[in-house]
Amino acid sequence: MDPLSTATAFATIVGLIGNFSAERRNAASANYEEFMEWLTKNNHQELVALITQSNTTATSIKTLLNEGREELIARLQSLDASLAQLATGFNGFRDIALAVYPGAELSDQALSLIEQFVDSGASKVLTSRYIDGELVLHILEGGSGHLAYSDPRFIEDDLNTLLKFDLLRLDHNGRGDRIYIITRNAVRFVQGHRAGT
Question: Which domains does the chain have, with CATH numbers?
Fold first, then answer.
């Protein structure tokens, strides 16, 4: 499989599952065998080979196809919106994502937070509040200082967005304070964003 095909295999498989489901709109259900036949008939032999090489991939596709059509469509729409929001951080894809989902853009503040976190080299950030209610994001384990932000009104929304897209994970300490944990996805996202800038 050529490098471009490998780089886009996930998106291609997901898109083809959507196309297959759309074509079978009136069918009671679709199954894995029918999907594989459909791929072969539509000249996607490389993807058939890729899918059959991995039991995990095949099982996941079987599970998706066994779901009700409406549930599958809802999952695909949610994935599409999530990918569009992440794509706004990459030049070349930003305008396409915003054309399809005008409100999908990661805020500048959310982008700044994740870049600061990655650049700090830390694995965790602990939250606390000053007496006046201001949220402080203390850098822990591998760094020092705190993450800066400019719009306190939307800091919670931005942190929740970063959680939603698996750029951060959430934990709590013994006192119940939130601890945000960096993910590999965050590091890859920042690297990709900077490479596309």
Answer: 3-100 (no CATH), 108-195 (1.10.10)
